[in-house]
Amino acid sequence: MIKLDIKKALVSAEEVAAIESEVAAAQRALEEGNCAGNDFLGWMHLPSSITAEFMTQVQECAQVLRENCDTVVVAGIGGSYLGARAVIEALGNSFQWLTNKGENPNILFAGNNIGEDYLYELTEYLRDKKFGVINISKSGTTTETALAFRLLKKQCEDQRGKDMARRVIVAITDAKRGAARTTADKEGYTSFVIPDNVGGRFSVLTPVGLLPIAVAGFDIAKLIQGAADMEKATSPEVPYAENPCAQYAAVRNILYRRGKKIEIMVNFQPKLHYMNEWWKQLYGESEGKDGKGIFTAAVDFSTDLHSMGQWIQEGERSIFETVVSIEEPEHKLLVPSDEENLDGLNFLAGKRVDEVNKMAELGTQLAHVDGGVPNMRLVVPRLNEYYLGQMIYFFEKACGISGLVLQVNPFNQPGVEAYKKNMFALLGKPGYEKESEAIKARL
Ligand code: PA5
């Protein structure tokens, strides 16, 4: 199992004990379904309730895409793409582009920005590709995703013909509402439903994450198994001190109350960059409301030790770190010996590269703790589907508990509507005439 180490979190056993009743009350409310946002708790028992029949449906759809596409574009934003991207990048070869011999389709992402150059370059790249599209939007109306999908749908139909396009375009959206559902039904696309009671950022273990991950060639059954084991390991009967979600939620809230307003998620493996991004959204969007909430930041070490290291070591003391530490890499690479030793690195000859990385990790932890930065470590035995499943469920459940201890509704996101309203008013969307007039007067 993955393990949470709080020994260097700079919190005392008394402080952790003192907050136990609040954490227990938050977890109870979550488990009993009588907390704020309780209409969005469908993610809690997803891992243990997924059926073999559902997994087969996802696998069959993935197989159709794998057989008919060399490239699959996942169109989605926020919770509708970050989880899939996090898992695919964590498990994939760092040089997938260059090394792919065709055994798995390349997975690309779109619909998560409105960059004209990005979309132009994507459509250019796809010109000679046998590509398919997974269009993911719970509301079915998100502008970034809808815009990208409009382009991709037309290009897919033009390039591959209407019949093939119908086979290789898949929709993952609401059961009834939204433009994505209307299009899927009209065009006869294979479609999957995002359950009503699962919010975007908690949806990676629904088809939103599972289908792209399966298309990329990874084992979704193992991912679910990992999540299900973590569901068990954090169930209500597990004592506080042994429940990693309760402990993580407790320490975060203790530190926040002490003025540690920023949590930095740290990895020492570049493949985890998008796990950081997924986590950033999960916690940022769940807790940042009502004038409260830890600001979520993320760094890739040791890369960012050469850019953000100074700030973390000696800047304002308002931060704490959570490090995801992978115990055993998937490959072995030794530092070679060199006769001339011009770089002076022969003292490392014969050691694994990971040993150097681990010492960088340990040295950084001790330096940052000395600099007054509390440090938690999530120790993960290997970077594979099973442990990623555990990590996903661990972070989701801890997020629910932590947000409830903070006394916010962790499952809504009213704040993300503000920019959309302004954008529609500025673009003159029908129905926004009054807002359009008002906003133009402000310019
Ligand atoms: O977590 C969330 O709710 C958001 O990040 C959404 O997933 C994101 O805004 C995309 O929304 P939709 O899936 O409706 O297109």
Widest beta sheet: strand line-up:
1-10-9-7-8
Please provide the ordered H/E string of secondary-structure elements.
EHHHHEHHEHEHEHEHHHEHEHEHEHHH
How far apart are the termini?
Answer: 55 Å
CATH architecture of the largest domain: 3-Layer(aba) Sandwich
Which shape, going by the Cα principal axes?
globular
- The whole-number mean of residue pLDDT values reads 97
Give the fraction of residues assigned to helices: 40-55%
Enumerate the spans where pLDDT stays under 50 for 5 or more consecutive residues: none
DSSP summary: helix tally: 18
CATH class of the largest domain, please?
Answer: Alpha Beta
Described by strand count, sense and barrel closure, the largest sheet is: 5 strands, mixed
Structural domain tally: 2
Bound molecules: 5-phosphoarabinonic acid
